[in-house]
Amino acid sequence: MIWLLLFLFSHCVAYTNDLGNYFVNIAQASYCVSPGSTWTCPTCNPTLTFIRSIENNGVRALQGYDPNNNAIFISFRGSVNTQNWINNMKIMKIKPYDDPEIEVDDGFYQSLSQVRSDIISSLPELTNSYKTSRIEITGHSLGAAMATLLAYEISTYYPEYIVQQLITFGSPRVGNNYFSNQLQILAIPSYRITHYYDIVPHLPEEALGYQHIPTEVWYNEDNSNYDVCNGNENPSCSNSCSPIHCTSVSDHLYYMNVTMGSDQCG
């Protein structure tokens, strides 16, 4: 298992189910490991070194060291109440970056702003302690949106670090088409995993000027099979159920046979 993951990361080859399983457990752990708690949740991989949990105004991120891939991992928690978050989603694009053509969702950007400085300020110490400049970033739901933004920011403003992998689950659309294209130019190894009729990957709507980042990995209902679809909005993957059938919250809370959320923390 470990040798396979090392090969995948170092050679950026095709997506495998093992890769998704590895990161979904890290993403789910962010729902369970609060500041002051220990790395003992049901999906807390004992081979990883947990460093700390950061939480501010309801936004939580975990940091740790992944010895299997010699990387610092960052995992963002999604919304504690998914249905309320969907219902109350504030959709408005802003231009917070140096490149004025990049537009991203204001709510997702403001969420990341709650923990960004703590994450970035800790990276020099962590990368020095563990002798690596590699970063892995993951998250589910709202956490996936924050993970995407952080991957862009690190790759753009902190070139001393390498975003080795961005793996997200049930991500909403984060920004405009130009933002998606800029992520492709940065060549961040990325897989955006979606599950069957999950509603969240269809929010905010394309009609409002939002577009997904590649590459999508779309799982069927029972998570037994998947399709890898290139491009931003491939009609062969989850967009094939749009706009009528992509309305499931239960599919959003179940990835890789792992139930996502705080209720699964034991």
How would you portray this structure in words?
The protein is α/β, with parallel strands linked by helices. The protein has a single domain, classed as Rossmann fold, CATH 3.40.50.1820. The protein is built from 7 helices and 12 strands. The protein has an 8-stranded mixed beta sheet with strand order 1-2-3-6-7-8-9-10, with helices on both faces. Strand 1 (49-56) and strand 2 (59-66) form a beta hairpin. The radius of gyration is 17 Å and the shape is globular. The two termini are 26 Å apart. Mean pLDDT is 93; it is low at 1-11.
Tags for this model:
single chain, 266 residues, alpha/beta, Rossmann fold, 8-stranded mixed beta sheet, two-stranded antiparallel sheet, 7 helices, 30% helix
- Unreliably modeled segments: 1-11
Order of helices and strands: HHEEEHEEHHEHEHEEEEE
Radius of gyration: 17 Å
Oligomer: single chain
Using the coordinates above, name the CATH class. Answer: Alpha Beta
Distance between the termini: 26 Å
Strand content: 15-25%
Helical stretch count?
A: 7
- Strand tally is 12
User: How can the largest sheet be summarized?
Assistant: 8 strands, mixed
CATH superfamily: Alpha/Beta hydrolase fold, catalytic domain
Question: Short description, anyone?
Answer:
The chain has about 270 residues and is α/β, with parallel strands linked by helices.
Fold topology:
Blueprint: H1 2-11, H2 17-32, E1 49-56, E2 59-66, E3 71-76, H3 82-87, E4 93-94, E5 104-105, H4 106-113, H5 116-130, E6 134-140, H6 142-157, E7 162-169, H7 177-186, E8 190-195, E9 216-219, E10 226-229, E11 254-255, E12 258-259
